[in-house]
Amino acid sequence: MRRTLIAGNWKMNGSRAALAELAGMAAAAAEHPGVDVVVCPPATLIAAARDARSDVIIGAQDCHAAAAGPYTGCLSAAMLIEAGATLSIVGHSERRTGQHETDAEVRAKAIAVMAAGMTAIVCVGETEAQRDAGDAMPVVAAQVAGSVPDDATADRLVVAYEPLWAIGTGRVPSIADVTEMHAMIRTRLSAKLGAETAAAVRILYGGSMNAGNAAALLAVADVDGGLVGGASLTADAFVPIIRAAA
Ligand code: PEP
């Protein structure tokens, strides 16, 4: 009942030339209609990506909470939609850390994304020190409580669990740890949004997902897809993950 979603986050990588990679990704998406394939390029490439491939869902990497105003360098949900995005990542750990975004700010961004008619991918995840201290579960539970809007609906909300120590490191948590964390996230979503909505929300795993580990991670009961960084930059790396999800 939950469609698998494989989302690529290009971060601050890529140029117009990189959009050539979308052809292979789009072909894989067409081969596997049961998988939603998303690419989140830098904002400068959203319109060109949308024009290049209507068969890949194009997303943004961030969205400001306000509709308009004196926010130099920021982009509103309406601007992202006009460019061609239909969803937006919010609260990625690189923004929580680098831009000091709080749970309240992430929630405000998610509300703006959803109110505009887009889907928000709300990112949560613990640091290595928090996991080593045995605090991974309460840290992520608090992020879910603080970052997910209270009235989120399953068609407008995706949650991505991304342990910070797994992002870009080649390290991934054990299958047991992923299983436990995703189940806990769904339980927390159920308490917040109700059992029916929580059962329909997709929870993605992110952090060094690649062709070698995708099948095992995607086989976990409450893993409904992946948020992929480095391995989403080329079709050669991304397409095997799409295939593993099918
Ligand atoms: C990410 O930053 O969202 C991510 C999952 O990166 P990577 O796949 O490179 O670890």
TrEMBL record:
Keywords noted in UniProt: Cytoplasm, Gluconeogenesis, Glycolysis, Isomerase
Protein known as: Triosephosphate isomerase
Subcellular location: Cytoplasm
Organism: Sphingomonas arantia
Binding-site list for substrate: N9, W10, K11, G168, S208, G229, G230
PROSITE patterns: TIM_1, TIM_2
Family of this protein: Belongs to the triosephosphate isomerase family.
Task performed by this protein: Involved in the gluconeogenesis. Catalyzes stereospecifically the conversion of dihydroxyacetone phosphate (DHAP) to D-glyceraldehyde-3-phosphate (G3P).
Keyword Cytoplasm: yes
GO molecular function: triose-phosphate isomerase activity
Self-association and partners: Homodimer.
